[in-house]
Structures are given as C-alpha cells and as structure tokens.
Design goal:
The protein is of the alpha/beta class. The protein is built from 13 helices and 15 strands. α7 crosses α12 and α10 packs parallel to α12.
Length: 501
C-alpha cells in the first residue's frame, strides 16, 4: 500500500483515506461485504483502532470466544482504561461495542464450537461473511481449537483465515508437529503466523536504513562493527499472569522469536527485492550460519522484590500466586550468538531481554570499532547507531564532536533521525486484506534449532537463575558477559527526545 503513495509526507487522514480506497477496491477482499472477527482469548484493542479509522467495512462484527463466562459489558469495562479514546471518538466506540458479542465455551468442546457457528450465522450477513479467527492463546490449545474451527466454524461462502501468535510451539519438535497439524487443516494462504514486534514501523525501517543509504552499506560488517546488541526490556513483572509465563519463560516469549527476527534483519544480505519471499530467503541464510546457543554464552535471571520499592516492585516472581512454588523459570536472559559467515565472523550479537527491569525499551544497537590512530588521548567513545522500536520510536547515531571552547574536548552527541510511526494495527489490517505475514516453517525451524538444545538443557538440569532486584538493569553477570565478548558500556550518554527540549 505504502509503496503506491506519494513521496510527500501525508497527513493522518490522507494516509487512512488511501488505505480505505485500497480496501474497498480490492476484489479478493470484497468476496463478501460482511466480515466477522472471532477473537479467542485476545483483547479488542486492534479491532477498535481499525474500526475507528474506517479501515474495516461497516458490516463488520466482533465475536469473543473464551472459557470465562463474560459479557460484552465486562469486556468493555476491562478495556476502557487502555483504549485512550478521545472525546470525538466516543460515538464511534459506542458503535464498535454494539457490533461486539461474546460466546463462552471450552476449547476442546465440539458442542461449544457448534454453538459458536450458530451464533455467527445469526449475525447480519453471517451466512456469507468472511471469517477471521484470531488465536491469542497458548500453543497447548491450538490443536483442539484449530480442529474445531475447521470442522464446525468455517464460512461456506466467504474466505476463512486463522491468525496464530508466538510462541509457536515449545521446541523444534512441537513446532514441527503444530505446523504439520495446521497444514492438514488449512491451506497456506489461510494461515497467518504473525509477530507484533515485526509490525513496528521502526523494524521495517531497518530495511530502508540498511539498503537505501550509501553511508551505511560499506561499514555494515565485521571490519567496522564491534558488536550488535538487541534489547527487549519491560518494567513490570508477571502481575498475576505467571501461570502462563512459567510454562514458557523469557527465551521462548521474546528471544527465540522477536530478538532472533531482529537479528536476521540486521545481519542478512541484501535481498533480490523487498518481496516477503526474497526477504525470508536471506533471513533463513543468516539463521543457518548460527550455531545452537550454549550455556557458557548465556546468563539467566529471575527477579526478586525490592524491599524499598513501591507497589508491585516489592514482589518477586515467586511471590506471584500463579507461579509454581520454587520455580526456576528465567524472567531475564542474555545470550551471545555468532553468525559464522564472511560478513559477520567474530562479531558478537548480544540478545538481552527481561521483565521487571529499570525501563521499557526495545532497540537494536550497533557499536562500531574504535577509531584507529587515536590522537585525542582516549577521550573518544565508540560510535553507535541505535534503532529504537519502543517507546518513542527513534533512529540516532552517537558520534563525537568538539565541545565549544579553546581546547580540544571531544564529547558525545547525536545525529537524530527520529521517525514517528502513524500506523496502528497494521498487522491485523494485513491479515484482512493481503498475503500472509508469515513466519514460514523453514525460518521457524532454524530459529528453534538454535535454541532447542539450550531450552532442553535448562529444563533437564533445572538451571538456577541469578536473582536480580525488581527495577534494576538485571544481573551484573549479564553486563560482565557483554563486556567479555566486546561490548563497551560507558553509560555516559542518554538520548534526549528533541521534541521535548
């Protein structure tokens, strides 16, 4: 869609105007004017954004399906604090919730899905409607849910699409079994394996940064880059959702998918085109060059309460009543990976992720090698290119410049390329209109190959994680590992949002 737009920056209304035009002119999409989103265990926020901005046909209904005995009113009450609705949008929100309904049932219960199908048929245009099933559920129930969807809930006249989220399986074997199961039920163009993190505008911007700028191409390799750090930090703990998290842990939740996807975008060779097939081919080549991670290159942590903290900060992971007593599940992990090819040989890719840390942050940080022939008496710090995905999406380069004055006093400054995204819920929109935004099986297979031996070792040996205080940077040992493999952390410079100066 965006490729067809003018190069001149468009206003928000112009952008959505273009998207609406595409939406209603798309013949495949108009297979039926009626659409039903069946949301299993998921929030309604993405649907609300799309509906508010006119990016869904008016004849669209939203149906929640879960085990809990809920009402639409209860869901609305729970969602309202997070929707951030402007006064001008209140009426639209009211229309949105009038299109919502809810059916309760167990995921393995065939009768519940037969009831769901009856309910879908009862909606206006329900017999002809396109159906999109959104599964924000643990993979353990995917088997039952998808079988029941296939046998009881498919639209006979409209299209049917199933969206599954990460983590996709628990390891290589379960992932392969799940892929085989889904393939036996649905065609490839009906299955969407999406990763919200990759939908971020900044992540997609990595492609343009790398391959659309002459200044970065020649230095994007082992000769100029000392290390690459990929970070995903959350400032909150499990907060009563530990039962689900404890079954998977931070490596499956964030590292094996989000961060490894980021790594492959940073490290891949230039694809033949920007088509998803060509990009995927290059990402797979990168993953094939990475050996399975070993425990010697990993630091695991688990947060404990901060006695001096406020509210939840006083509580450790094991204080969450939904977490099994004595759990050794990691809530923090740092792992060092190496890409054994000509471009990257010897360059450490440091993956860091965790909960209950000191800030919310997701970023890619490329640290360049030292300038040879230093004439400034070790006053210069390493250049860095930082692509921050959240919060306050930004791209900036840390570089040295002379401090004003008579003497040579180099100081760190930035070349700011900050870029604000205007698009929300783009992935859900893609699932409605376009080709699958898919983590294809060969890519998924390689990702699991890299992490499965480590995950099995951790579970077999019950590797004890290192305690770290809620609200800290994580275990000191993780910083020591990063330093040992070549990352230099000075901690002297913080990016400042120029719009707030």
């Amino acid at each position: 869609v965006l490729g067809k737009m003018s190069a001149i920056p468009l206003s928000r209304s112009e952008v959505f105007g273009e998207l609406r035009k595409e939406l209603h002119e798309d013949e495949e999409f108009r297979q039926s004017d009626a659409h039903i989103f069946i949301i299993m265990g998921a929030s309604v926020r993405d649907g609300m954004w799309l509906f508010r901005d006119g990016l869904l046909p008016e004849q669209t209904h939203f149906v929640g399906f879960a085990r809990s005995d809920l009402t639409v009113e209860a869901i609305k009450t729970a969602c309202m604090p997070y929707l951030k609705v402007a006064e001008s949008e209140v009426e639209r929100l009211s229309v949105f919730f009038s299109r919502n309904s809810y059916v309760s049932g167990k995921y393995a219960d065939e009768k519940a899905f037969a009831n769901l199908h009856t309910h879908l048929l009862s909606l206006p245009g329900g017999g002809d409607a396109n159906r999109l099933f959104y599964l924000a559920l643990p993979p353990s129930v995917y088997h039952d849910v998808t079988s029941n969807i296939k046998h009881y809930c498919m639209s006979a006249k409209g299209w049917n699409r199933v969206i599954v989220e990460k983590p996709f399986g628990r390891d290589l074997q379960s992932s392969e079994e799940l892929s085989t199961h889904l393939s036996s039920l649905f065609t490839e163009d009906q299955i969407y394996r999406i990763d919200h993190y990759l939908g971020k505008e900044m992540v997609q911007n990595l492609m343009v940064l790398r391959f659309g700028n002459r200044i970065f191409g020649p230095i994007w390799n082992r000769d100029s880059i000392a290390c690459v750090v990929l970070t995903f930090k959350e400032p909150f703990g499990t907060q009563g959702r530990g039962g689900y998290f404890d079954d998977f842990g931070i490596i499956r939740d964030v590292m094996q998918n989000h961060l490894l996807q980021m790594l492959s975008l940073v490290a891949m060779e230039k694809p033949a085109s920007t088509s998803s097939d060509d990009v995927r081919d290059e990402k797979v080549k990168v993953l094939k060059c990475i050996s399975p991670v070993t425990m010697s290159d990993v630091v695991l942590g688990q947060y404990v309460g901060d006695p001096e903290g406020q509210g939840d900060a006083k509580l450790g992971y094991l204080d969450d009543p939904t977490v099994p007593k004595g759990s050794t599940q990691a809530t923090f992990a740092t792992a060092v990976l190496y890409v054994h090819n000509e471009r990257w040989d010897g360059v450490p890719f440091i993956l860091r992720c965790g909960k209950a840390l000191n800030e919310r942050k997701a970023e890619v940080r490329l640290q360049f090698t030292d300038v040879p022939g230093d004439i400034f008496g070790a006053q210069c710090r390493r250049n860095e290119l930082v692509v921050r995905v959240q919060p306050n999406e930004a791209v900036y380069a840390k570089m040295m410049s002379k401090k004003p004055g008579v003497y040579f006093h180099p100081e760190e400054t930035e070349l700011d390329l900050t870029y604000k995204s205007r698009y929300k819920a783009a992935l859900l929109y893609n699932c409605v209109c376009y080709t699958p935004y898919s983590l294809f099986s060969d890519e998924l297979r390689e990702a699991w190959r890299i992490f499965t031996p480590l995950l099995h070792q951790i579970e077999t040996e019950k590797t004890p994680p290192i305690p770290y205080k809620y609200g800290s940077r994580g275990p000191v040992e993780a910083d020591e590992l990063s330093k040992r493999v070549g990352f230099r952390y000075e901690g002297t410079y913080k990016w400042v949002n120029p719009h707030k100066l």
